[in-house]
Amino acid sequence: MKKGMTGPSGKVVVAVNFDANAPSLVKAAVSLCKVSGMGLRLVHVTEPFFANYVRTVEPIAGIRPDLILGVENEAIRAAEAHLKELVTDVVQGFPVSTSVVVGRISDGIIADAVADNATLIMTGAAKHSHRFIPKGFSTPLSLMADSPLPVLVVPEGAALDFSKEGFRVLLADDLRDETLSAVRAAFEIADAAGQAEVLQLHVNVMSEDTFAICLDSALRAARSPSDLSAKELYSMAERFLNDKIEARAAEEKRRHRAAGGRWNAMLVVGKVDEELNHGATKFKPELLVFGRHQRFHGKSLVFGQVPFFSMLALGKPIMVVPPDAS
Predict the structure, then answer these.
(1) 11-210+234-321 in CATH: which number?
(2) Would you state the pLDDT for residue 222?
(3) Which of 40, 79, 309, 317 has CB atoms 3.0–4.6 Å from 100's, for a disulfide?
(4) Which pTM was predicted?
């Protein structure tokens, strides 16, 4: 990362929702901070009750605004107390700051993280967070789409311990320039976890048969026969993809191997979401890493050909890294 996502200059902002997943989410963040040297900040966002009241209720109900403002202030105090309790129960012997923000949840988390010079946002995800909701996207989906910082999502029931021996990272690499930051981030996380294993997976959506059909059509249209067969040309294309996988983040891979970490590449053919699911089932990673091509505003949340909600549906901790985050 440009200023180092991990290490003393890095900081994790954890979006705390005071649900059943909160303790395990904070424990996961603490384990990352302990192995990486990053700082930790717990943030809770509460809705602006007073502003909503003034806009919708007060003209009809005639209830005193100061009473509603008192309710909002009490909610903030209660949230601050809950954060301190969570720190006492989970973050023993570890320095951590806390913050309660009033506003829209995803916007408040991002604003606090940026203002605090954080390098990573962590959030939990309920069992149905990968589904679209009538009024928009869940908080994890919104953060994955809009955050200028990498976002690490820990689904409900998923344990994530960065100090675990044999930590595994599955890097879903589409080989685009915009997602090179995700490749670098994956190795930085793997290095922090110790002698971790990284599997760099690229899915080629074009099979040899499909390639042969397309090539034949192109040659016929151009009226220009090829000296090489479709099979030979397809083999050349596969070698090109393998070479590109090897070349990406070459310096990070060298350091990772020198520190005792392991790295393997895998080029597979098929549908992206199916092959990622198959790879996650077979490799059993502790963490999956994806790159994000751009921000999305009112568009489908898609990573290449994989919707963000499909990533969450895997039920594994995932990290989404935006362009230029490294």
Answers:
(1) 3.40.50.12370
(2) 59
(3) 79
(4) 0.83
